[in-house]
Amino acid sequence: DRHRASELNDLICADSERAISGSLVKTFPALAFAILRLHRARSGENPPRLFAGPEQEYFIRELLAGAASANLYQWPEQVLNASQTSAFARELRDLISRAIELGISPEELKVLSVNQKYPLWEAASNFYTNYRELSGLAHENAFDSSEMIYQATIALKNDQEFREEIRSRHVVILVDEFQESDPAHRKLLEALYSDELTLYVDPDSAIGRFRGADPESIPSIFDRYRDSRGNPADQITLTLDYRATQAITDLGVALAQRFSFSRMNAHRLRSCAGKNFGNKEVEDTPKPITLAQCESAHDEARVIAQHFQGKHLRNGIPYGEMAVIIRSPSTRATTLRRVFASLNIPVREEIQSLPLNKQPAVAPLLTLASLAFALAGKTLTTERAEELLPNTLVDELLLSRYGGADFLTLKRIRATLINSRKSDDTRNSHQLIREYLTTSVVDLEWSEFAPIKRISDLIASGIKAVRPGATSEDVLWALWSSAKDESGAPLAQRWQRDAIEGDESADRDLDGVLALFEAAARYADQRPGSTGNAFIKQLISESIASDTIAARAQRPDVVSILTTHAAKGRQWSVVAVAGVEEGIWPNLTPRGSLLGSERLVESQREGSATDRTSREYQLSALAALKDDERRLFYNAITRAKSALIITTTVGEDARPSQFFSEVAEILNVDEEELSAVEAGIYLTPARLVGALRKEAESSDSARSQEAISILAY
Fold first, then answer.
1. How far apart are CA 574 and CA 308, in angstroms?
2. What is the pLDDT of residues 608-645, one digit of tens each?
3. Residue 506 shares a structural domain with residue 369
4. Are 147 and 48 in contact (CB under 8 A)?
5. Cβ proximity of 205 and 178 under 8 Å
């Protein structure tokens, strides 16, 4: 991903003795963007811009809605109603992206619908045709990442002079994680490279098959990429592991040997480089791998937290060199975070972010901005006020980060308002609050109703910012700069102070607001002269998270909690792989979607039969899915350098997965050893001081003196 690319580029620049112009490290989409921008500049065309995922999905939903009444795309009757949902638009976007990556045109998709006996692809091909025609008109110069790569490849292939110019700028090309590349990436690389091409490949760690990565076809790349004299690429097998201890290396190799679809094995005959080869970072520990069966997710989190705390206090390993890896976002991450916090262990969740409109610090700003545009310059009737501010929304605003109320405060406010009504006033508490929120002059003691005051002031600030020509960014900024905490100080300053002091929620809130303004600025740049609340409306309707390049708060010495996908390509001294339970890891729930994007990918794999029945496809997909899950697990355990703990839970609704059992078998760990791992006593500073004081008062003089000595230290 581009965050990892940015980090690697920074490391290279820091180690270089010369000034480096531009970015040396790029993702395939970033490389395609740079190539296409240069080609369009030579042709006198406007520069390209990225058609971001949420924006693309919003456009697809508009096209589907506009064609629904006449069923212009000829969707089968059984999916016609579903075609108006966000989930359907998301699947359609995914199908189109996979088709572009695979080089499949609308006409070819229609043919495949017959060959693969998948009739939904025929209607999808009708939409695909219309989408390609209209997206260029409605979103001029905008390309999603798949289309960007396709257009860059076409530019290189069709313009010999331009290709030579680009090749002269990229004399040496190094491709890391090549096993994650899809057919479109490989076609771009074929058009770009000359002789100096090095591909780094680990087929065992490929985790992107659902996006088109094809690790099984890696052996064929040596013939595919030839030098100018027609010679196939040299294959060099690396047999020394410079990351992990021998025990962790051996475990990774043993698990990789169990892959079903593997055509490469030589790279698995490897050993730990160790200190004899100058690898000083790898330290052999008495027990590098620990397996733990726990009674609950809470006990599991305690075992991991105390394991990490012991490594930190006894071995001096920084918390920044530790990570907990889980299969996918879940409540387990919340449990881990809370237990770690109880031990005063700093953590950072790197779980995939929510869409902006679902983030606690952003959603209220979008709501308030939308209200400001709706209320500015208009006479507000009671009916219109109820429409704009339904009861649930009133509560959400008062309970938000910006209102600052809690449920007890809100209950007290309602009771006070009801009790203070005039005898002939029959309005309920929501109606009273709604009036106070939208009326500039009200007869209330604001010290008692601070949440109402804060939201009312924000709405007034937003309305004031809605001047002729005002943009969404103008109104959002007016709201953000007017937000106050309970003391009347700017909320931004409060969050910044809390973030510096280690408050993770303040970190996330500031990151969310920063991403919001980055998205607003990008929208304004892409649509010069755009005014009004178009950006607000689009953002509120989005259902997937948008990528962002906004800088995020960095706290170096913290434990990372992240998914195995986010851990790809990274390493830590101590790693815990948590939640290795049946049904979770591996997760063998079929990934089949209504529109069959994964089936389209499978149909184009090297050696794939074109006439498989649905049953044959399902069996093949299940076997491939199991291998994918094993690769995710392999990727997680091989992030550890010196210590690894693998945990699971055992109970009425949970039992260890086959992966956990396989590791126990490989390590020859019996059931008695697994059950013996328990969480010890919490070792927070406060608890430790309390225990020592109790010992200091004990009748045992030796223990008492020892406790006093420790307290004095």
1. 8
2. 555 666 666 667 667 777 888 888 999 999 999 999 99
3. yes
4. no
5. no
Q: 3-class DSSP state for residue 312?
A: helix
63-71: long-range contacts (C-beta < 8 A, 24 or more apart)? 63/127, 63/130, 63/131, 63/134, 64/88, 64/89, 64/92, 64/127, 67/130
223-228, Cβ contacts within 8 angstroms, sequence gap of 24 or more: 224/186, 224/190, 225/189, 225/190, 225/193, 225/197, 225/199, 227/195, 228/194, 228/195
Tens digits of per-residue pLDDT, 374-391? 888 777 778 888 888 888
- For residue 152 the two structure tokens come to 């860059």
Output the DSSP codes for 38-66: HHHHHTTPPPPEE--HHHHHHHHHHHHHH
Q: Are 124 and 95 in contact (CB under 8 A)?
A: yes
Residue 472 domain-assigned (yes or no): yes
**Cα(299)–Cα(258) distance, rounded to whole angstroms?**
31
Closest CA to 28 of 142, 141, 169, 147: 147
Do 305 and 345 meet the contact criterion of CB atoms below 8 Å apart? yes
Question: Is 18 among the domain residues?
Answer: no
Q: Rounded to two decimals, what is the model's pTM?
A: 0.71
Name the token pair of 13.
């620049």
> If you write DSSP's letter for every residue of 233-297 in order, what string do you get?
PP-----EESSS-HHHHHHHHHHHTT-SS----GGGS-EE-TGGGT-TT----S--EEEEEESSH
Structural domain harbouring 454: 356-541
Q: Residues 322, 368: one domain?
A: no
- Contact yes or no for 91/82 (Cβ under 8 A): no
CA distances from 510 to 123, 165, 496, 550 (A): 44, 43, 7, 11
Q: Residue 534 gets which letter from DSSP?
A: H
Instruction: Tell me the per-residue pLDDT of 21-58, one tens digit each, with 9 for 90 and over.
Output: 767 888 899 999 999 999 999 888 888 888 877 778 88
- The number of CA neighbours under 13 Å toward the Cβ of 155 is 23
Q: Is 361 helix (H, G, I), strand (E, B) or coil?
A: coil
Range name among 140-144, 524-528, 703-707 with the lowest pLDDT average: 524-528
The CA-based diameter of the chain, rounded to the nearest angstrom, is 96
Q: Whole-angstrom distance between the N-terminal and C-terminal Cα of the chain?
A: 48
* Degrees to nearest 5, angle at CA 609 with 110 and 589: 85
* Final residue in a domain of this structure, among 114, 138, 162: 138
What CA–CA distance (Å, rounded) separates 263 from 244?
25
Residue 253 lies in a domain: yes
609 in any annotated domain: yes
Determine phi and psi for 325, rounding to 5 degrees.
-110, 130
CA distance linking residue 409 with residue 406, whole number of Å:
5
